[in-house]
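Exercise 7. Given the encoded structure of a 232-residue chain, write a plausible sequence.
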């Protein structure tokens, strides 16, 4: 039979549907939990959203959280190797410039194509619509999370506390699904690993040599130099 708790049963806005909330004895409202669906790669999210379109829940409000690498449409920032830093600088107006796409986020998040309709969407759909409306898909996806019943994202958005905080993801009392969870161990290992080349180590050692020879914070730089030497 049809579900009674989520918004797909009535087609109503989840924020306005009285069946979407339950009263506690103390008078507080407790929302029906969101479903956070984590995958290893962005490509898998596309596959999952494609399958969602084939189900009776294709009309459920959803969003996809992804990095600027996949959703930035700014002509300069999107072609940069440090998209995150450039995006932040634009939003803070450090160079006297701003991002017109960011200021058009509401046009994308409120667009009828992303409202509860009988069709799920994927990252490519969001980016395509963002280019058409000249609105930022990255921040629109984050805004859509507020009213979404299902949130798709890579593993690290759920596992890394820093990313959770930056994306304002609250997992308490929510439903978390990890696709192919046997990959979690590798994902966790990668998130706390860092790779350096021999040339980078030699360059670091040379800089530390200068610091030590000029008596600049020797007690801190000498141990670091010893580590570089031992690794080399």
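Solution.
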């Amino acid at each position: 039979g049809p579900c009674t708790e989520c918004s797909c049963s009535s087609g109503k806005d989840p924020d306005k549907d009285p069946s979407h909330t339950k009263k506690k004895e103390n008078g507080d409202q407790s929302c029906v939990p969101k479903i956070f669906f984590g995958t290893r790669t962005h490509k898998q999210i596309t596959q999952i959203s494609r399958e969602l379109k084939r189900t009776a829940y294709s009309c459920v409000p959803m969003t996809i959280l992804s990095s600027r690498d996949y959703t930035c449409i700014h002509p300069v920032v999107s072609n940069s190797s440090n998209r995150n830093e450039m995006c932040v600088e634009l939003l803070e107006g450090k160079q006297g410039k701003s991002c017109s796409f960011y200021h058009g986020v509401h046009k994308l998040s409120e667009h009828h194509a992303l409202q509860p309709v009988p069709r799920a969407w994927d990252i490519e759909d969001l980016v395509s619509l963002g280019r058409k409306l000249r609105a930022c898909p990255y921040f629109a996806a984050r805004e859509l999370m507020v009213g979404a019943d299902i949130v798709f994202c890579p593993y690290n958005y759920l596992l890394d506390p820093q990313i959770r905080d930056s994306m304002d993801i609250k997992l308490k009392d929510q439903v978390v699904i990890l696709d192919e969870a046997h990959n979690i161990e590798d994902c966790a290992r990668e998130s706390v690993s860092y790779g350096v080349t021999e040339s980078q180590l030699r360059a670091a050692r040379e800089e530390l040599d200068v610091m030590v020879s000029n008596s600049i914070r020797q007690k801190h730089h000498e141990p670091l130099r010893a580590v570089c030497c031992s690794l080399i």
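Remark. The first helix runs from residue 42 to 52. Students should compare their own answers with the one above.
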